[in-house]
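mind reviewing this stuff:

——
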Amino acid sequence: MTSELDTILVVDDEEVVHTVVGEVIAEPGRRVLHVSTAKDAIKAIASHEDIDLALIDKNLPDGSGVDVARVLRDRHPNTPVILMTGYASLNSAIEALRIGAYDYVTKPFEDINRLALEVRNALDAGHLKKQQQRLLDDLKDSERRYSLAAAGVNDGLWEWTVATGGSYFSERWSHMLGCEQSNLDGNIDDWLKRIHEDDAERVRVALQHHVEGRSSHFEDEHRILHSDGTYRWVVARGMAERDATGKGVRVAGSLSDVTVQRLAEQQMRHDAFHDAVTFLPNRVLLMDRLSLALARTRRGSGHQFAVLLLDLDRFKVVNDSLGHAAGDLLLTATARRLEKCLRAGDTAARLGGDEFAIILDDIAAVADAVTVAERVQLELSAPLRLHHQDVYTTTSIGIALSRPEHTRPEEILRDADVAMYRAKALGKARYVVFDPTMQTGAVKQLELDSALRQAIERREFVLYYQPIVALGSGQIAGFEALIRWQHPERGLVPPMEFIPTAEDTGLIVPISNLVLAEAVNQLRELLERFPQDPPLFISVNVSSKHLGLPGLIGTIGQILLETRVPASSLKLEITESAVLEDSAMVSLNLDKLKGLGIELSMDDFGTGYSSLSYLHRLPIDTLKIDRSFISNLGVDGENPVIVHTIITLARVLGMEVVAEGIETEAQLMQLRALGCHQGQGYFFSKPRPANEIVEMLERRPRW
C-alpha cells in the first residue's frame, strides 16, 4: 500500500520554478518538499523514509543534479526522477537515461498541463514499481516458507522404488488429484502420465539426474491433471536413499498444491502491467512493446510502425458532471471500442487520465495509420448511454511514424504527443500527423518561455496607461494599466505576442502579480498628487488562471495594505470566459474581492457567451463594451442597437458601462446621447508611460 501522502521533492535554485511547479503539482494527498541546493536535497533524502517522486534541476549552484539523483537512487531505488534542464537536447535525454531517470523536462515548461500529467504518470510508475517489488518480496517469502516446511498435513506423500518402479502415494496425494487410491496401479506412471506434456520430459530428466547422483535433491514445479479435467500447479520434492555405489534405490518426497499461489502470482503480474479500470496494457507494458517495435525496426527489413496518442476531448465534463464512476464507465467503454478498431498484433493502452495510446505494428505507409485514426474517431463519436442519458465525446489524435532517429520509446511517444496537442489547438475532434517542423515550433516556444522567465527576473515589463474618461463631465476618471515587454533586443513587445504563452505556461501568475504591484504603486502617487471627487482609479486585467488561484486574495490584500490605497480605487477587469468556467474557486474569489471593496469589470462584453442569468448573479459593477461594436457606431447597421441594448441592460442591473475603442467625436457624441457612463480610446489618448499621464493630469484636459 502507498502512504497516505505522496512526498514530492523539488530541487531547483530558481524561485519561479518552485512557484510554477508547486502550483502545478499541488493536489490533495501530496506533500511537496522545496529545496534549492544539492546539499539541502541530500539532507532531505536522508531524513525522509519515503520519497515518491523527485523533480531535480540538472545544474545546481553547489553541485550537479545528476549526483543528487544518484544519491536518491541509492536510498530509494524505486523512486522515479524527472530531470529538469534548461536545454532541450539529445545529450540531456541520454544523461537522464544513464542515471535511470523516469523522464526529463526542459525549462521553461512548454505546457504546465503536460507537466501535471507527467507528474501523475511518474507517480503512478513509482507506485507500480514499489508494488512490483513488494509482490516479488512476498513471492520470495512464500517460496522460502514452502521450502522450509516439512511434508505437512496438506501435502501428498509419495515413494518410488527405482528398481521395480513400484510406488506409494498417500491418501492426501490421491485426494489432491481427485482420484481413488484403489484406481492407482502403484506405479510411478500413476504420477508421470498425468503431467502436462510440456512439463513431462523435464520432470523425468530431473528425477533421473537425482537418482544418478547429479543433484543433491529433486524439486520441480509442474502442471498435473486433475480428475475433473483441469490442470493443477504442484511442487514435487524428494530425496534419494542411495546404495554403496551412490546410486539412488528409493526416492521419497512430497507433493504440494500451489495452484492458488501460482494463479495469484499470475494475477499480480498481470495487474502490474495492466490498467485497473480498463484492463488495457498500462504505460509500463506499452513502453516495453515500443522497445520491441524499435528493436525490430533497427534490424532493418523495412519494418515500420506507428503510434497514435489519443486524448478524450470531453472527459472532464463527464467526470465533473456525472461523477467519477461515470468517468470510469466512459474509459472502459472507450477501451472496448478501441479494441474493435485494431488488428490482432496491435496494442491499445491507457497511459493515465483520459489519455490512450495505440501501437500499429508493421504498417506500409502513413495512410494505414490515418485509416485507423478515422475509424477510431467514427467509433468513439457514437453516443454512450451513461446514467440514463446519452453522452457524446470526441477525441484528438496525434500520429507519429517510426523514424531512424528514434532510439527510445519516449522519443516516438513525444512526437505523437506534439501532434496530439496540435490537433487540440486546431479545435479538437481531429487527427494530426507529426511533422519534424512541429518540433522546431516547439523549440521556438521553449525559447520564448525562457525569455519570459528572464524578463520576470530582470523586471523587463513596463506599464502604459490609457485614460478612461467620464463622458458626462469630459474629465479623466481613471486609467487602464496595459502591460508591455521592454525586450533588450526587440524593443517594446505588445501583449498579444507573449500573453498567450504566459497563459499556457502559468507564467501569467507572476507577471500579473508584478503588474498589480506596479499599477497600485502608481495609483498611490496619482491619488496623492491629484485629489479629486470621485478619486482616480486604476483598472487592471486579471487572467482566468489567476482568478482561479486560492492565493489571489492574499496577494491583492497585501499590495493594498502596503500601499494604503483604498480598495475602491482599484478595478479588476475579468473576461466572460473566466466567469463562465463556473469554477468554485473563481466564484469564491469574486465574492472575496467584492468583500474587500474592489470593483469588478467584465471586459470585452458582447464577444463571448454571457447570459442574463450569469450577469444577474455575478458581483459585476461595470460592463466594458467591446471596441468591435463601437467602431461602426456612426454607420447604419445593427451596432447602435446592440450598444443601446447593452447600456439599457446595465442600467436595469445597476451597472455602469465603459465603451472601448472611441476614435471619433461622432462616436463620442452618440455614446453620450445613449447615456454611456465612461469611455476610452485613441480619441482621448493612446496608452502612455507613467510620466506622460502625470503631465496629462497636470493639464487637466476636458473633452
